[in-house]
Amino acid sequence: MRTYLVTGGAGFIGSNYIQYIMLKYAEEIRVINFDKLTYAGNLKNLETISQSENYIFIKGDICDRGVVEQIFCDYDIDRVVHFAAESHVDRSIKDPEIFVRTNVLGTSVLLNAAKAAWENSDGTFKKDKKFLHVSTDEVYGSLEEEGFFYETTPYSPHSPYSASKASSDLLVKSYIDTFRFPANITNCSNNYGPYQFPEKLIPLTIHNALKGEKIPIYGDGLNIRDWLYVTDHVKAIDMVQETGRLYEAYNIGGHNERTNIQIVKTILQVLNELLADSDSRKKYISESLITYVEDRKGHDRRYAIAPDKMKVETGWYPETGFEEGIKKTVQWYLEHQEWVEDVTSGEYQKYYKEMYHIR
Ligand code: NAD
Ligand code: DAU
Fold it and tell me: What span, in angstroms and rounded, lies between the C-alpha atoms of 268 and 330?
């Protein structure tokens, strides 16, 4: 039985990934979810599989060397899939240090623990051990109107978040180059879908619209992101480990560039379609909620991924069209209002008040 150590498995993408592999491989695998449960981690994301005998949750911090080493002692780990990170750009602008700690130091701790557990006495590595570092397209910086990010595009991060992710990528690359450490790096574009914390544009827009609250758009609203449905991302991660070439980096993206204002308007349209006329929240759904606010500092203008290498080498492509994906996403949030209420009570209110002054 193959054993996966998934870090950050209680977050947005990690929980979608665990659900995906537990369904796909069923009894063939055991999954250890190692997560600190920060504001972004929520065990409710994994309620459907929490009783499975093949699932183990360990609460802990990837920066805690003792605990991480102990996991590698207690279990014969075959795959590390490393999601755990501080992931929100705005928070990194307010408080960069935790991003360096978790994203850089935490990755270093994990690399060292995996290396120590997997290395043979002659410096080679045990067979079929793999470490996948989940990273972002933001490491490449910002594009003008034309062009795409390729795996060969030089790194040029702008925010403390993307700088910390770039640093962690380089650390992984250095282990590959120096030790021939069995790793891959994936650099993905913006994800959307179920279980995304409502600090990010898409769930924040849905949440505010349903409450009749203003929807903050940074700057002129014309910044472009390349949106990918989260299930397509987690499939890609699995395909890199199953059929990708070890030691390689792969770009993953949706071929789906939209301006932020287009995204927000689309969500409002979908809400209008999906809400019954009798639903009291329908009266709020209007473009008049859109409120232009001060721009994000250092706001990258455009991201666009060229996922050609993924397509050619693994056969992966983004299966979910945006119209389908955004409908599924809005529907999920409509059906999971309790989950939203739960994660937006308490600390979120304080964060929102400090971050936005538009209520
Ligand atoms: P998220 O913020 O939803 O989840 C992060 C998870 O990591 C949470 O469960 C949190 O509790 C956990 N965590 C944070 N610090 C930890 C620590 N010190 N020790 C252990 N666990 C810790 O993030 P996400 O959006 O799911 O992103 C997951 C990964 O994918 C990140 O590495 C991110 O950089 C990358 N990524 C995200 C996107 C996106 O659009 N969301 C796109 C590309 C890449
Ligand atoms: O590109 C991949 C990255 O995508 C990931 O590495 C990050 O972890 C993830 O958070 C995401 O980063 P972004 O900064 O692109 O996502 P966010 O949802 O925060 O913002 C998307 C766009 O919307 C961005 O141009 C900023 C804008 N925005 C965001 C918020 C939260 C607004 O206009 N208003 C808002 O209130």
Answer: 10
**Is 300 touching ligand 2 by the criterion CB < 6 Å?**
no
- Residue 186 Cα, ligand 1 centroid: separation in angstroms? 14
What's the mean pLDDT in 194-202?
Answer: 98
Dihedral of alpha carbons 70, 75, 81, 84, sign: negative
- Please list the active-site residues: 137-138, 161
Domains in the chain (CATH in brackets) are 2-197+226-255+298-320 (3.40.50.720)
d(CA 321, CA 255): 9
Q: Compute the distance between CA of residue 91 and CA of residue 293 in angstroms, rounded to an integer.
A: 17
pLDDT tens track for 294-333 = 999 999 999 999 999 999 999 999 999 999 999 999 999 9
What would the pLDDT profile of 21-78 be if each residue is shown by its tens digit?
A: 999 999 899 999 999 999 999 999 999 999 999 999 999 999 999 999 999 999 999 9
Distance 352 CA to ligand 2 centre (A): 15
SS3 359: coil
Look up residue 47 and give its two tokens: 């309620």
CA distances from 87 to 31, 99, 222 (A): 23, 8, 22
Q: What global pTM score does this model have?
A: 0.98
